[in-house]
Write a structure and sequence with these properties.
four-stranded mixed sheet; 3 helices
Length: about 140
Amino acid sequence: MSFSFAGLDHIQITAPLNSEEEVRNFFADLLLCKEIEKPSSLSHFDSLWFEMGRHIIHVGLDENYFPEKRGHPAFEVNQIGDLMEHLEKNEVPFEEDYNLPGARRFYTYAFFGHRMEFLEWEDKPEAMITELERKEMEEK
């Protein structure tokens, strides 16, 4: 086989139908993510798209929305302490978690009850470094 995975292109989570203002408030205003325009061929879908580093998050607006408590996105962050201070200033509740060796991370349920993880690697365990990451480190 000659195919290989390059990584994640995007993830999609849901929000209640007609909640565009709250979605923009969370991703654009609070997390400072740039909203991007969907391709015109997808404009009929009720969704908003945002840049998050090298990736895109699609927020589908759904009348049958329900919050994910276990399945969740995890966003890698630079300067996670600054993000935590920013969230505290904006009264966004979160819980720091110390169970992943080598990472500083926290969870919040502030986006319509979805579990959302934010983490910064301080010393990533060898077993969690992917082959592609190893190659990139060797090239540096």
